[in-house]
Structures are given as structure tokens and as C-alpha cells.
Design a protein that fits this description.
Structural class: alpha+beta
Shape: elongated
Number of strands: 14
Order of helices and strands: HEEEEEHHEEEEEEEEE
Length: 300
């Protein structure tokens, strides 16, 4: 073999190696899945109606459950509670008077019972008449009926006082709900009311989301299912400046058990695939990732 043939053979081998290397790199640069980032959103509403008297948030604000972010006007609730407290005190005063009546009747009964014991003994000795015994017995019976009647009034007053107290607790609950704090730590995405505006129950005040951990909703074909599993770490890339990519590491948190038709805005690894499986990848966010931002997923 001539030197020329040897060099030509080496050149062909090098060319094949370069092509193979390029092919491998090109395959590794092909995303396994595409998707968009999303965050779990919360609509925060008021449970009471009234004017928005205090607001401590704006769109983009970071808030947490320890903060008081909004207060609804409570003046009418405070007046209602004051009225109920006055009624409760009045009813309790009636109860004291009725209890005093019962105590007086019980003292009268105790005196009559002593007289009855004495007269009954005298009747046994022949020093008192049967009429005297019957009269005392009748008087004791009358006192018992009076005590029972007053006791029934006491029960009615207790029920009235309990109902008023329950209404006071309801107002207290509404007062507590007039002060609004977020259920989680997160960022305010949208604000729907300004100071002084009327707020009504179940109409959102603002929308917020936890942006510290984002969910990437991506789609894979059926023949890719064997390549993924829950908890698996994957590489996620998003577009950056000058055509470069920003890389993140995430973990697969959910894989759909059912196939669905390919969403129009999603491209899969195999475009001819008609049905795909949805999956979610949790990615830690330090501010770079935004809601609806597109991303690519690499399994290896």
C-alpha cells in the first residue's frame, strides 16, 4: 500500500469519526419534550362586603401569610356587635332577677315545710286540726308550682342569651374575615380593586402565585414513556440572549396516565405523533422563569 493510499484511508476514517461525533452531538441537542411554564394561581377574595379601607400590595408585590394585605370597612359590624353585647347584658340582668325570685320562693317553701312538720306533729298530738295540715300542704304545693313556672322563664332566658351570644360570635368571625392575609407566600399577579372601592363577597381582590417553584407542563409521545419516571431529574433549557440557552435542573412530579391529542402550541419529538402524554416538571425559580415561558426538556 502506497503512502498516498494510507493517508487517504486515514482521512476517510477521520471523516467518518467527525460525522459520527456530529451525529451524536446533534442527537443530544434535540429536545425530548417541549412545554410551557405555569404556576399554581390563587384568587383571593373577601368574605364580607364593604369599602376597601386598607391595601398593602400591588402587582408584583411579594407577600406572605404573616402580612395584613387588605382591610374591609368594619364600622357596621362593630356597631352590630355593640348592639348585640348590650342585648346580651340585658338578658343576663333578667336572669339575675329571676334567680333572685327563685331564691325567695325557696326560702318561703323552707318556712312552710318547717311549719308543716310542726303542725303535723301537733295534729298527731291532737293539738291541731286536719284543715291546718291540708292548708300548709296546699301552700307548699303552690310554692312548688311557682318555682317551676319561674324556672321555665329562666330556661327561656338562657336560650335567648345563647342565641345572642352565637350572633356575637358570627359578627366576630366576620370582623376577623375583614382583615385579609394571603394563604401562601407568593407574588401578586393581578390586582382588581383600589382603595375606597366597594368589595363584595366571592369577587377576587387579587390573583397571586407561588413563583419559587414553577411547573413545566410538557408532552411526550407514547414510545417515550419508558424513558421517564416520577422523581427523575431532567435538564430544562429556556431561550436566553444572543441565541444561547439558560439551563435549569428539574424533577418530574407527574405523568398523565391517559393520552390526549397534541396541543396546537406544542411540538413533540416526533411531529407525526397524534397523541401524547402530559407530564409536569418542577423547577426551582430564582426569578428568571416567567409564567407561559416556553422551554425544552432533555431526559439525558
Amino acid at each position: 500500500m502506497t503512502n498516498y493510499d494510507s493517508m487517504n484511508k486515514i482521512s476517510l476514517i477521520l471523516s467518518a469519526c467527525i460525522l459520527l461525533l456530529f451525529s451524536c452531538n446533534n442527537d443530544n441537542d434535540t429536545p425530548d419534550a417541549f412545554g410551557n411554564f405555569q404556576a399554581k394561581e390563587y384568587l383571593i377574595s373577601s368574605e364580607v362586603s364593604g369599602k376597601l379601607m386598607y391595601k398593602n400590595f400591588e402587582e408584583g408585590s411579594n407577600i406572605d401569610p404573616s402580612e395584613k394585605v387588605a382591610v374591609i370597612d368594619t364600622s357596621q359590624l362593630v356597631l352590630q356587635r355593640s348592639e348585640l353585647i348590650a342585648r346580651e347584658r340585658s338578658v343576663k340582668a333578667k336572669k339575675v332577677n329571676i334567680q333572685a325570685q327563685i331564691d325567695v320562693l325557696k326560702e318561703q317553701k323552707a318556712v312552710l315545710e318547717k311549719d308543716f312538720s310542726r303542725i303535723k306533729k301537733m295534729y298527731g298530738d291532737g293539738a291541731a286540726t286536719e284543715k291546718q295540715v291540708d292548708d300548709l300542704k296546699g301552700n307548699i304545693s303552690v310554692i312548688d308550682k311557682q318555682i317551676a313556672s319561674v324556672n321555665s322563664n329562666l330556661i327561656s332566658i338562657d336560650a335567648e342569651a345563647a342565641a345572642i351570644h352565637a350572633n356575637i360570635e358570627k359578627v366576630n368571625d366576620l370582623l376577623d374575615k375583614s382583615v385579609i392575609s394571603p394563604p401562601i407566600s407568593g407574588s401578586v399577579l393581578e390586582s382588581y380593586n383600589e382603595l375606597g372601592e366597594l368589595v363584595v363577597p366571592n369577587k377576587p381582590l387579587f390573583k397571586m402565585a407561588d413563583m419559587t417553584h414553577m411547573e413545566l407542563m410538557a408532552y411526550i409521545s407514547g414510545d417515550q414513556l419508558s424513558a421517564v419516571k416520577l422523581g427523575q431529574e431532567v435538564l430544562v433549557k429556556v431561550d436566553a440572549l444572543n441565541g444561547s440557552y439558560k439551563e435549569f435542573h428539574g424533577n418530574i412530579s407527574w405523568i398523565s396516565p391517559q393520552a390526549e391529542f397534541t396541543p396546537k402550541n406544542i411540538q413533540t419529538k416526533k411531529e407525526r405523533t397524534n397523541q401524547v402524554y402530559a407530564m409536569k416538571v418542577i423547577v426551582k425559580n430564582e426569578g428568571e422563569i416567567k409564567i407561559n415561558m416556553p422551554a425544552e426538556v432533555y431526559f439525558n
